[in-house]
Design a protein that fits this description.
Layout (H helix, E strand, L loop, with lengths): L1 E4 L2 E3 L4 E9 L2 E6 L3 E5 L5 E2 L7 E7 L2 E7 H4 L12 E5 L7 E5 L1 E9 L4 E2 L18 E6 L4 E5 L1 H16 L1
Parallel strand pairs: 4-14, 8-10
Antiparallel strand pairs: 1-2, 3-4, 3-11, 5-9, 6-7, 7-8, 9-10, 12-13, 13-14
Length: 169
């Protein structure tokens, strides 16, 4: 067994599929099992005085989702949504209804567990400054032409809450 993060472990020959997306010209991915849908709608109601990384709310088919901007969570400047941006919405099993705003969608990528280096194996220099390394990044994998940074979708929302509490201190 190879430990991927605190609560996920897989056999070395097991394959995982990631829904990938681009953010500031870097490739990120979340486990496809956690993704409900990819939605093109990027107009949402802003939440004023919200923590960094919270973009607003959006109502899609009667379900209200909290929308997070992954840029500040990954150590980048907040961006302005455009027509190329997409929302990655997560299943209820991940947590409260939420989604993340990404620059553009990539492909579904299948990675064997032995190709994925867990976050405990990564050096601190691998992550961007300001990233909650303990919660969001679960591993990295070298693909043919780029590096895939695997994220734990179950910890994204927690990182925003924890980050806002630490900022308020």
């Amino acid at each position: 067994m190879k430990k991927i993060d605190g609560d996920l472990s897989v056999k070395n020959d097991e394959k995982r599929q990631f829904c990938t997306f681009w953010l500031m010209e870097r490739l990120y991915g979340v486990d496809i099992i956690d993704v409900k849908e990819i939605h093109p709608r990027v107009d949402f109601t802003p939440i004023y005085h919200s923590p960094k990384g919270v973009s607003g709310y959006v109502n899609i088919r009667g379900q209200v989702y909290l929308i997070l901007d992954l840029r500040p969570l990954m150590g980048f400047e907040e961006g302005t949504p455009d027509e190329e941006n997409r929302l990655v919405l997560f299943k209820p099993t991940v947590g409260e209804p939420f989604g993340v705003l990404v620059d553009r969608i990539g492909d579904v990528v299948e990675v064997s567990a032995d190709e994925l280096e867990g976050s405990e194996d990564m050096e601190d220099s691998m992550a961007d400054p300001g990233v909650d390394k303990a919660g969001i990044i679960t591993g990295v994998c070298q693909l043919d032409d780029t590096l895939l940074v695997a994220l734990n979708s179950r910890n994204i929302l927690n990182s925003v809450v924890v980050g806002s509490l630490e900022t308020a201190k």
